[in-house]
């Protein structure tokens, strides 16, 4: 008969068995764009221009209104409406700007 201590050692060596590590991990591929590739900022600006008034035009319009340059604001507002006939801000501002221009003309005659 074998010594139980020796048997226990060999049994524990067998039960521990071969150490298994986690299975190899494959890198996850980056998500593929759905028909849209990344665009540069310039390309995005060019795309925006096709869908509405250029942002620079909108910014100049707002600056003219804030500065009280209603003559320029009126022209810029009309240009915005050429790009976007349904632009709510331009549609609301235009009559107000024209009213300010009329007020300015009536006070300059006195």
What does it look like?
- The protein is mainly α.
- The protein has a domain of 59 residues.
- Helix content is 65%, strand content 0%.
- α4 runs antiparallel to α5.
- The longest helix is centred in the last third of the chain and has 21 residues.
- The protein is rod-shaped and about 100 Å long.
Task: Name the features.
5 helices, mainly alpha, 110 residues, single chain, rod-shaped
Question: What is the fold's blueprint, element by element?
Answer:
Blueprint: H1 4-16, H2 41-51, H3 55-67, H4 70-83, H5 88-108
Helix pairs in contact: 3-4, 4-5
Organism: Myripristis murdjan
Protein name: Glutamate-rich protein 2
InterPro entries: ERICH2
Describe what is shown at a glance.
InterPro entries: ERICH2. It contains 5 helices and no strands. The chain is mostly helical and 110 residues long.
């Amino acid at each position: 008969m074998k010594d139980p201590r020796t048997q226990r050692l060999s049994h524990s060596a067998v039960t521990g068995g071969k150490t298994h590590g986690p299975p190899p991990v494959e890198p996850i591929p980056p998500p593929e764009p759905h028909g849209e590739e990344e665009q540069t900022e310039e390309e995005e600006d060019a795309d925006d221009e096709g869908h509405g008034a250029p942002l620079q035009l909108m910014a100049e319009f707002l600056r003219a209104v804030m500065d009280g340059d209603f003559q320029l604001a009126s022209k810029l507002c009309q240009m915005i409406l050429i790009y976007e006939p349904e632009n709510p801000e331009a549609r609301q501002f235009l009559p107000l700007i024209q009213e300010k221009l009329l007020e300015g003309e009536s006070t300059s005659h006195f």
